[in-house]
Structures are given as C-alpha cells and as structure tokens.
User: Fold this.
Amino acid sequence: MERYDIDTVACAQRTICWYVKEATVAVSEGRAGSVDTIVEGLSRADWMGRFTAGTVIEPAIQAARKQTSCEQSFPDCAITNFVETIVRLVGKR
Assistant:
C-alpha cells in the first residue's frame, strides 16, 4: 500500500471508525446482528479502552462513538469506498 501512496494507518482508523459507527447505529435501532452487538459492546467497554489508549485505534473508536464523520476525522485514506464495500461483504457472512 505504501508503494501506491496509501496511508494504511488512516485507512485502518477510518475503517474501524466506520464499522464501530455502523454497529452502534444498528444496536440503537434494534437491528444488530451478533457481530454488531459485540463490536458495539467492545467499543464502550472500559477495559477495552485501557488496551486501546494511546494507540491509533483510540481516536477511531472515539470518533465513531461521538457519531462524527469518519471521512472528516480521517481524511488521508484514499480507498474508503473500496474498504467499506469489503467490510460490508465480510459482515454479511
């Protein structure tokens, strides 16, 4: 990815943000599957926060929990639509 000037950290952050945000919405609307429920629960667990504190994952989870725009929070990812499509496909399995 570096060879193609793709910021993998920003893409990982945006993907985590997007998935946590989607899971949070699904849970609040009562349409969450088991994976969404687990992701949403982990994203707000205090003990998980201790593991992610100071990592690149922490701001991604925080942005998702605040329901802010993942695209605006992590603008350096150039392949978002592709990544979101892959995550959606994987989540359907």
